[in-house]
């Protein structure tokens, strides 16, 4: 490929800045890096999924890149700058007929990419929580695709997956591709009606489209998505679960399934989209295949730190496609406010690869409240008998969706009433799945201290007060003898061995 223009631009920037300018190359772009800025020049390429062959097309897609990425990273994306002059002697901006265009961005250190943070052991897991909430909020506000539409339709989803496999067959010869192709056809039949329902429910929206770990960066203390798909609306107007699947897959490919489930948990708390879990597995396999294909198209941006190896995405796709589907099982928590239920559940879901459904969060969702909103400040009474009945109906419906999708499920609620526990035991029996109770215990003095501290922090979804705790202590219905046989007892005053706890739960299944 002719590199005259990009090399001349590089030399021009070096003269202007008086410093070395780095050149990073991907399969569709060149990026010139000064000390403070990045200049992205699109290659004049034509692939099955992108056409940058003309100057007009490259200008259009530079403008689209700026518009679309400012949704996610407004502080990074600055403007589109025309390239004028001659290919051998170009200049950024100025008079004359543009010969090309670049997207100008604020530069960030490559060490701040999520992939590199993880590989260097510098990733704070809590950053993923905040990122999940921001992504869910952006998706929630995004434009919905109105059916009937090709966007998010079953035929389009299957075609995209089949096309990726076809591209991989051109790149390499691997027996697992035939197996994966057959798996795609089988899952396509099973998920056809689910995809139609997803489109009709508004789950297909204007998303990011390329949300893997090399397209997420730490900026001003927050993980931020950038470099979304600008060149093909079919790859961007997708099921929100397909967007999420790219990152959960990539974390798994890097050996961090625990962080994948932590991110998914935070996203589900904000989005409430448990119904989408039935299609998540398919999208994870598809996204792994996409990364395997991209790796074969040319040089990749943001190389891994020295000594770190890149994942084998094709092997990841095969592993995800053939992960056991019989691992679904149901666990409900049991304990007073302040007994550590949510803390233990949040750690256990990461270890077990489970989906958690929180009563504190789902109760607020029924009233249109965010997880950390205070109902009293809105003048809402959300803890009455009718609200509680509706809450447990919601928990049961969400648990059913997640179990039918094949995931272990933790329902995080007090479950101090026998009827509430029996309802979920009945759900497990109906689905012929193992059922267990995580019985969280601690001294009453510790309960009171924890509840008092939590009620003043405002950083937890629970709104339980000391008054609520006293009512629980006075009126709860203890586990019956048969329930005790199903219980996993854990004392939460001291540190809990989560690996051992996960093994006990798995053994019960």
In terms of topology, how is this protein built?
Blueprint: H1 4-17, E1 22-25, E2 29-33, E3 37-42, E4 46-47, E5 50-51, H2 55-69, E6 77-85, E7 90-92, E8 100-106, H3 114-119, H4 125-141, H5 154-171, H6 175-200, E9 204-206, E10 216-219, E11 222-225, E12 237-239, H7 240-253, H8 257-271, H9 277-295, H10 313-321, E13 330-334, H11 341-352, E14 355-358, H12 359-366, H13 385-404, E15 409-412, H14 418-430, E16 435-441, H15 444-457, H16 466-475, H17 481-484, E17 487-491, H18 498-508
Helix pairs in contact: 4-8, 5-6, 5-9, 6-10, 7-8, 7-9, 8-11, 9-10, 11-18, 12-13
Spans of at least 5 consecutive residues whose pLDDT stays below 50 are none
Q: State the helicity in percent bands.
A: 40-55%
Mean pLDDT: 93
Query: What strand order characterises the main sheet?
Result: 1-2-3-8-6-7
Q: Roughly how many Å apart are the termini? A: 57 Å
- Helix/sheet category: alpha/beta
- The tally of domains stands at 3
Q: Which CATH architecture of the largest domain is right?
A: Alpha-Beta Complex
Proportion of residues in extended strands: 15-25%
Largest sheet: 6 strands, antiparallel
CATH class of the largest domain: Alpha Beta
Quote the CATH topology of the largest domain: Aminoglycoside 3'-phosphotransferase, Chain: A, domain 2
Q: What is the count of helical runs? A: 18
How many strands appear in the DSSP assignment?
17
How would you name the CATH homologous superfamily of the largest domain? Aminoglycoside phosphotransferase (APH), C-terminal lobe
**Overall radius of gyration:** 25 Å
- Global shape: elongated
């Amino acid at each position: 490929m002719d590199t005259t223009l990009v090399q001349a631009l590089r030399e021009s920037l070096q003269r202007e800045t008086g410093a070395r300018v780095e050149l990073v190359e991907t399969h569709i772009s060149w990026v010139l890096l000064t000390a403070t800025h990045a200049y992205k020049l699109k290659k004049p390429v034509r692939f099955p999924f992108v056409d940058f062959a003309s100057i007009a097309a490259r200008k259009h897609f530079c403008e689209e890149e700026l518009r679309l990425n400012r949704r996610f990273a407004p502080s990074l994306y600055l403007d589109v700058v025309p390239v004028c002059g001659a290919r051998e002697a170009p200049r950024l901006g100025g008079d004359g007929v543009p010969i090309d265009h670049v997207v100008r961005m604020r530069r960030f250190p490559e060490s701040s990419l999520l992939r590199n943070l993880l590989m260097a052991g510098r990733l704070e897991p809590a950053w993923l929580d905040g990122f999940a909430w921001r992504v869910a909020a952006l998706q929630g506000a995004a434009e919905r695709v109105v059916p009937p539409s090709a966007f998010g339709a079953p035929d389009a989803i299957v075609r995209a997956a089949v096309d990726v496999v076809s591209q991989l067959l051109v790149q390499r010869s691997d027996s697992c591709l035939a197996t994966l192709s057959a798996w795609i056809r089988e899952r396509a039949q099973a998920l056809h009606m689910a995809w139609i329902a997803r489109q009709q429910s508004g789950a297909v929206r204007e998303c990011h489209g390329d949300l893997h770990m090399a397209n997420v960066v730490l900026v001003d203390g927050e993980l931020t998505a950038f470099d979304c798909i600008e060149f093909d609306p079919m790859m961007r107007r997708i099921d929100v679960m397909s967007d999420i699947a790219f990152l959960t897959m990539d974390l798994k490919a890097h050996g961090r399934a625990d962080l994948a489930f932590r991110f998914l948990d935070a996203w589900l708390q904000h989005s409430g989209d448990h119904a989408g879990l039935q299609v998540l597995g398919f999208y994870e396999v598809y996204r792994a295949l996409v990364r395997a294909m991209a790796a074969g198209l040319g040089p990749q941006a943001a190389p891994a730190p020295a000594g770190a190896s890149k994942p084998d995405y094709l092997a990841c796709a095969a592993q995800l496609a053939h992960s056991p589907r019989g691992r679904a099982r149901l666990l409900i928590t049991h304990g007073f406010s302040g007994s550590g239920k949510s803390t233990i559940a949040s750690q256990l879901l990461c270890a077990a690869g489970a989906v958690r459904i929180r009563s504190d969060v789902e109760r607020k969702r029924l009233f249109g409240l965010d997880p950390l909103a205070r109902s009293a400040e809105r003048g809402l009474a959300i803890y009455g008998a009718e609200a509680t009945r509706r809450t447990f109906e919601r928990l049961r419906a969400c648990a059913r969706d997640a179990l039918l999708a094949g995931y272990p499920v933790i329902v995080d609620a007090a479950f101090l009433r026998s009827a509430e526990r029996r309802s979920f035991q009945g759900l497990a029996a109906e689905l012929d799945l193992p059922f267990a109770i995580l019985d969280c215990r601690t001294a009453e003095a510790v309960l009171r201290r924890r509840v008092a501290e939590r009620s003043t922090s405002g950083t937890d979804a629970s709104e339980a007060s000391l008054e609520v705790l006293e009512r629980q202590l006075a009126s709860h219905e203890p586990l019956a003898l048969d329930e005790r046989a199903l219980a996993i007892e854990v004392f939460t005053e001291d540190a809990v061995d989560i690996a051992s706890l996960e093994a006990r739960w798995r053994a019960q299944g």
